[in-house]
Amino acid sequence: MKATRYLMAPIWVAQLATGAKSFRDNPVIGSAEFNRRGLHARRAKLAHDMAWRRRKRLARLISAEDRVAFDSDGFVAREEFLPPDDFKRLRDAVFAHRAPAREMLQGDTITRRIAVDPEFIAAVPAIRLVLDNPDWRGLNRYVGSFDQEPLTYVQTILSHIRDARPDPQTDLHIDTFHPTVKAFYFLTDVAEDEGPFVYVPGSHRLTPGRLAWEREQSISAAASADRLSSRGSLRATPAEIEAMGFRSPRAFAVPANTLVVADTVGFHARGFSARPSVRVEIWTYGRRNPFLPWTGLDLGSVPGIAERRIPWMWEARDFLAKRGLGAQPWQDVGRLRPQDPPGRPVG
Ligand SMILES: [Fe+2]
Hints:
Blueprint lengths: L1 H13 L17 H5 L2 H20 L5 H10 L1 E4 L5 H13 L2 E8 L2 E7 L2 H6 L4 H4 L2 H11 L6 E9 L21 E6 L10 E3 L8 H13 L6 H4 L7 H6 L6 E2 L7 E5 L4 E3 L6 E10 L22 H14 L8 E6 L11
Antiparallel strand pairs: 1-8, 2-3, 2-11, 3-4, 4-10, 5-8, 5-10, 6-7, 6-9
Helix pairs in contact: 3-8, 3-9
The structure holds fe (ii) ion (FE2).
């Protein structure tokens, strides 16, 4: 064990200059002693400062109104994002297409993902109404603070599919220590009690209260009983969030054809779901080394590569998992439509 530590130490240190976030898996990032002296807090502060600097250079990609809204709240929400006829055409085409799907079971909830890859784009050309939309492109870039193509999926949330503890995503949390984008373009209505996206407005800002909380958490996070907190997605109680001085959480109970783009370094959750429901959205995710000074130069954004990244990532993880070299929580469930019932028995 000592020899391993000796060999791994340079890698653990090098990871400080990346988006590595697990307190549990990296003894340097998780060191109570270093974090008491402010290691985690300094990493978070630097990553936030750099993201805001990059955003300044990307501000031309979005409207002044969206920029003001995002800078204040940490999200931009727009109802009737596409003209109603375009929306219906897109939704009907997405719902009718059976595509290779992956599912992950967490608690009583299944998340299904379908890659928006070349095959999907060829079968559902209406998806271009979103992918090529300048506001869609600009918001993903500004909020994510990089001029990069996000990973794009059709995502379905099937809630209450079995009797189990609630889905862990229902606790308010941050995804990681640095700014990062997620976008949701809802293809179904989302009711208040059907697991809406919940966000604490303004919590994307590293205020003194938030910074002090992160510092405190980072000291004990490696040993936290909460697996997701110990791996860098820190959980907070509503009382802690109030004590940090943030506003009350907002639940996005919204009609279909609403776009929400958010920085998930802010506190967010999947809201309470009172009954079985099926939510479908076009969903993106964009993350990169938060310490890069430039906004572009992303190989993964090159056309031809960008749309193939998701199937490649799935295959790579399947390959490793088969050889016992990692977990693959995303199970291959064959070809499904977004609203189909679960692709495998869930007990
Ligand atoms: Fe999250």
